[in-house]
Structure formats: structure tokens, C-alpha cells
């Protein structure tokens, strides 16, 4: 199934690492993809860090920067805003580094009268931010979320993610996001396919979540692999699934030999 593949798109949390620990087979997988001459892109919904912060973390875990690139739902959200709402102001929920990324990318941030509200994975979230965000949503601002993940897997167990915050806003305002940018939205994967100038049959999507990673790969029409190293357990996998199932990256590496 890996013959002729030119682009491997890999999730991070629960697929490649948990917290600050590489999962078994992660380094070997990266080296194998490089050995066969394919490109590796980490595609993460987690918008609580910038591309450079992710790169620094992965390199500190022992992975050479020559092996990979990174694309985040925060970057995709910025790209979406610039392509469709370039002259609109934004009230943003984000950690400081991601807020700076939006600002440096030319997005006009507005805490008083924004046209759009954007929710990323803000680990500095507090009541004042949520109160203001809900106020703008309730009064008709366009509402965008970077991704729909309910929980983020860590070495200590799952923690609330953007999907949980979306549920909070829905309970308060009655509104769902007008746009959700990250996986399973096919646009985020289509962007990579276009950027790397490959065909869909040359792409493999690998992740640990059924409703984001796997759904994104299936909707886009690429070969898709579920790993059982993160959120999904075997009892959650449907009978005769339209995707491949491996225990983790270590087993995938063994199948590529």
C-alpha cells in the first residue's frame, strides 16, 4: 500500500507523541519516509502553538528538522481569513504566540467591535475572554473555529480542547461555528496536496482520531490509516472499515520493510 507514495501526512498528538514523549516507532517512521524519498508533513489540529514552536519541540525530541514540515490549523485559519475575509477585523481566542502569528500575518485584531470571532486552542482562556466572545457571537459576528477536537490527548490523559469550548459557546448563545477549518474539513488537506503538487493516490493520511484525522482522509479520497496509540480503541472501530488499522507507527514501519 505504500508503493508510489510521495506525501505522508501525519497527526501529532496521540499519533507521533504524547506530551513530551515520542511514541514507539516514531523516529524510525520518520527515517523510513525519508529513506524512500517521500515528504512528511505533520498536520495538527492543535492550534495552541506556532509552527516554529512545534518544530522546536520535535527537534528537542531527537528528530532532525531535515525530515519534516509542519502545518497547523492556526495557519490554515489565517490562510482562510486572508483568502475570504481580508478586510475584516477579528476577535481572537489564542495563546500569546499564536495571537502574535495572526498579527504578524496581517490579520486586524479587534477587542471592541470585530466583524469575525475566531476560536483557536487558547490554553490561557478565562471567563472574561469567554464572556466577550459569547457577546460578539450573540450579536451576529461571523464565527470561526480552528478545529473541532473535543479533547487533546496527553501523557496524563485527555484534556479539554476546542470542541469542548464550542459546546460551551453553543450552550450560551445557541450558535455553532459558521466555519470549522481543521480536520475533518477537507480543505486543510487539499491545501497540502496542492502545495506539494502530488496526486491523491500518492498521499497517505495517518492519525488516531476517527472523527477528525480518519474522516478527513476518507472525505479527501486518500489512503487513510488509523493508529490505536491515541484516542481511538479497537472496540470503536467499525466492522470492515474503509481504512487501514495499525497499533501504532512501529507496526507501520515493520510493514514498510
UniProtKB/TrEMBL annotation:
Signal peptide: none annotated. InterPro entries: HAD-like_sf, HAD-SF_hydro_IIA, HAD_sf. GO terms for cellular component: cytoplasm. Keywords: Hydrolase. Pfam families: Hydrolase_6 (PF13344), Hydrolase_like (PF13242). GO terms for molecular function: phosphatase activity. PANTHER family: 4-NITROPHENYLPHOSPHATASE-RELATED, HALOACID DEHALOGENASE-LIKE HYDROLASE DOMAIN-CONTAINING PROTEIN 2. This is HAD family hydrolase.
